[in-house]
Structures are given as structure tokens and as C-alpha cells.
Amino acid sequence: STDAVFSQAMKVALSSGLVDSGDTVVLVGGSTSGTSGTTNTIRVEILD
Predict the structure, then answer these.
(1) Which long-range contacts (CB under 8 A, 24 or more apart) does 17-24 make?
(2) Tell me: the pLDDT tens digits for 1-48?
(3) Domain residue ranges of the chain, discontinuous segments joined by +
(4) What are the counts of helices (DSSP H) followed by strands (DSSP E) for the chain?
(5) Which residues have a Cβ under 8 Å from the Cβ of 22 and sit 6 or more positions away?
(6) What residues contact 47, with CB distance under 8 A and at least 6 apart?
(7) What is the pTM of this model?
């Protein structure tokens, strides 16, 4: 699911030092994987 992919992406970004707790992150995704122009989800989150 998109939620699972976003969650994993945030975990990897945190563990690799790309982002820190308190940072604002913009996540984008689409329901059709691998097809250009199908982005239909934009999520803005503040990392805990």
C-alpha cells in the first residue's frame, strides 16, 4: 500500500541521516507504479 511505502521511505531517510526528527517531508506517489504522470497522492508530514 502507499502508506506502507511512505512509512518505509521515512524510516530509511531517518536512518540514513537524510532527514532529522522535526523536519517537514513531502511525499508523492501514484496508484499506478511505473507509469509517468500518474501521481495522485501528495502528503506533507513532520517527522517525530
Answers:
(1) 19/47, 20/47, 21/47, 21/48, 22/46, 22/47, 23/47
(2) 888 999 999 999 999 999 999 999 999 888 777 778 888 889 999 998
(3) 2-46
(4) 1, 2
(5) 46, 47
(6) 10, 14, 19, 20, 21, 22, 23, 24, 25
(7) 0.72
